[in-house]
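Q: Sequence in, structure out?
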Amino acid sequence: MNNLSDLEKKLSITFKQKKILENVFIHRSYLNEHKNFYLPSNEKLEFLGDSVLSLVTSLFLYQNYVWLKEGDYTEIKAAIVRTESLAYAAKLLKLGDYLLLSKGQDRESGRKNKNILADCFEALIGAIFLDQGFEKANSFILEYLFSNKLDKIIKNKQYLSPKSKLQEYTQAKFKLIPTYKLIEEIGPEHDRIFKVEVAIKQKKYGFGYGKSKKEAEEKAAKEALEEIK
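A: Exactly. Output:
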């Protein structure tokens, strides 16, 4: 593991309990090869960080975007805390350089793996919250995750799901909403695949497959948007 004091300087945070910071970078794969290691994996910190991130995001939206609806809040939050956003923030901080991974994960570019990096970023949020308190965790999230990004997402409506985007389009152009129809269910009950069709004014615009009707509808809406463009 690289010298964590460099990361502390970058964050302008001096951890009172250094082990909490160390714990951020212990991937579970590392423990498979080092069963007597003195620290657990970062999964509990990640769980805590995820909860703190959810609260900070909700609070920020509530205080700064009062004109938006609750449904908008939900979609914006999903957009800002998705794996890609968290992994990008982790890359900016070079968190991958500090990770302790198994040899296999290291060979397979685990330090660049989006899921591992996103989990690590959430673990870091959890560690800052535990060691420094809510305000420091809040400031960290605002600086490294929200800065210059949230306004852009909201202004360009990048948070809208394909279904929401399609509905917004059809309401503006035709004064109606798309209709979704379940066409087929494939596979056994425990592993069902749904096929959904989306139509606008009785004209078919797209199909989607998914492990739930919702997922299939979103994919159908995405295909319809591409067809419209």
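The first helix runs from residue 4 to 11.
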